[in-house]
Amino acid sequence: MSITSITAQQRLDSRGKPTVQVQLTTPHGTFRAIVPSGASKGDYEAVELRDGDKSAFEGNGVLEACRSVTDVLGPKIIEAGLDPSKDLKKIDQLMIDTDGTPDKSKLGANAILGISMAAARAGAAARGMPLYQYLADESGTPSKDFVLPVPFMNVLNGGDHSGNPMAFQEFMIAPTHATSFAQAVQWNAETYSALKTLIQSKHGKGAIGLGDEGGFAPPIQHPHEALDLLMEAIKIAGHEGKIKIGIDPASQSFFTDGKYNMGFKTNAPDMLDAAQLGDLYRELLEKYPIVLLEDPFGQDDWSAFTEFNKDCTIELVGDDLLATNVDRVKIGEEKKACNSMLLKINQIGTITEAIGAGNEAFSAGWSVFVSHRSGETTDDFIADLTVGMRTGHLKSGAPARGERVAKYNRLMDIEDELAAKGLTFRYAGEGFRDAHKDV
Ligand code: PGA
Ligand code: ZN
Predict the structure, then answer these.
(1) Could you read off the pLDDT tens digit of each residue along the chain, which spans 439 residues?
(2) Considering 45, 213, 315, 415, which one is annotated as catalytic?
(3) Does 294 belong to an annotated binding site?
(4) Is the pTM of this model over 0.90?
(5) Does residue 301's CB lie within 6 angstroms of at least one atom of ligand 1?
(6) Do the Cβ atoms of 367 and 391 come closer than 8 Å?
(7) Which DSSP category does 56 fall into?
(8) Which atom of ligand 1 is nearest to 212's Cα?
(9) CA 209 to CA 22: how far, in whole Å?
(10) Measured distance CA(320)–CA(324) in Å, rounded
(11) Which of 200, 203, 218, 403 shows a CA-CA span of 20 to 30 A to 3?
(12) Is the torsion defined by CA of 405, 158, 242, 382 positive or negative?
């Protein structure tokens, strides 16, 4: 089953910035993918090619990346006669080799990823199976049953994703005690609605504006203010004790000169060293039902991660620290820096490498947490990926805004489809960290 055409077009992401769309055609149809983009990006991510021509989109155009697809990579893949139903690894490898740089900076990770995603979709269609099954096969996931993830929904936005003074980037709600994915979505949506009313009553109507990931961005600064708001909203919605909390401070965004500046969005610097910041996290962990902490320290602050991980009982996730890069995951394992890898497909630029990094993390006994980007599209690929890899949890922002809910809606479709087919599946629930091990 050969590919007959691969083209790319410049489209928009959820922040109104250009991004790459790929269309890949086979005898089974035309398969599309649109690439996401981050704001709080780490230095170890694969490179997103931007035109730099200031006369268009302030230099953010991706026409060059589109040409990488249409003029360079597409013709090469077609000429090689590769078949997406069985050759995804070869397609990805051919793109890596053609680019030839360690960070995909020549042809662009945005170009390469678009083809990789569209090829996976074409492969699934050729094999007559849903994308999550194709990705389960690609990942080597044991196929006993399917696991629907706990949706960690970011309902309070700060950091680089909003205009409020809060340094921490994300406060997520995780309905670990729900019994199905659909119920988890419902509980989170009810809590989100309660949070809106609460913010309005405490801070006024003008305070219910949203950040980039659809969460509210009220004029608060300190993490305990955010957590108190969440606890109250969970209680009002009637889900006390059943919804837990995750935090992604994205601390690289406020790391300067060896310190963490909790006041980085205000005129009053509030500098903490890694030990003081660690103490703050421990205080929060003691007081609130937090089950997951991501990037508590900067992307090169390995020693702070290792120190914190020593007596850490919750999930400690490396995002900017690991960049979905198998080499950095191995360093993390050696240094015992964390116990979970965030998986962002555009951090590395091919589906094969993202799965490879995730499998390396699994083999170390870690968890894998699948993630969207703050600049998203309505492409719902990661919903299938989280089920295919059986990661047990994912984050895709608030239960609001089309590009965020596209993933949650797709996961509800998958849950319904599995039920209709009579296949065995379950909601990850409290065991979300170990969903992959539990077969
Ligand atoms: P980003 O944020 O997509 O802006 O990098 C997400 C995250 O830090 O997890
Ligand atoms: Zn993060």
Answers:
(1) 799 999 999 999 999 999 999 999 999 999 999 999 999 899 999 999 999 999 999 999 999 999 999 999 999 999 999 999 999 999 999 999 999 999 999 999 999 999 999 999 999 999 999 999 999 999 999 777 899 999 999 999 999 999 999 999 999 999 999 999 999 999 999 999 999 999 999 999 999 999 999 999 999 999 999 999 999 999 999 999 999 999 999 999 999 999 999 999 999 999 999 999 999 999 999 999 999 999 999 999 999 999 999 999 999 999 999 999 999 999 999 999 999 999 999 999 999 999 999 999 999 999 999 999 999 999 999 999 999 999 999 999 999 999 999 999 999 999 999 999 999 999 999 999 999 986 5
(2) 213
(3) yes
(4) yes
(5) no
(6) yes
(7) S
(8) 4
(9) 33
(10) 9
(11) 403
(12) positive
Write the CB contacts of 204 (distance below 8 Å, at least 6 apart in sequence).
Answer: none
Query: 78: Cβ below 6 Å to ligand 1?
Result: no
Of the candidates 153, 156, 154, 164, the residue with the CA atom closest to the CA atom of residue 216:
156
From 119, 145, 144, 132, select the one nearest 25 (Cα to Cα): 119
Q: Is 213 a catalytic residue?
A: yes
What are the beta bridge partners of residue 343?
Answer: 370
CB-based contact 169:161 (threshold 8 Å): yes
> Are the CB atoms for 390 and 136 separated by under 8 Å?
yes
**Residue 48 assigned to a binding site:** no
> What separation in Å is there between the alpha carbon of 149 and the centre of ligand 2?
18
Catalytic-residue membership of 144? no
Burial (0-12, 13-18, 19+ Cβ within 10 Å), 79 = exposed
Query: Residue 37 CA: which ligand is closest?
Result: 1
319 marked ligand binding residue = yes
CB of 407 within 6 A of ligand 1: the answer is: no
197 Cα–ligand 2 center, Å = 27
Catalytic pick among 344, 353, 376, 415: 344
Buried b (16+ CB within 10 A) or exposed e, 122-142: bbbbbbeebbbbbbbbbbebe
Q: How far is CA 205 from CA 39, 200, 202, 217, in A?
A: 27, 5, 9, 12
- Nearest alpha carbon to residue 68 among 114, 35, 121: 114
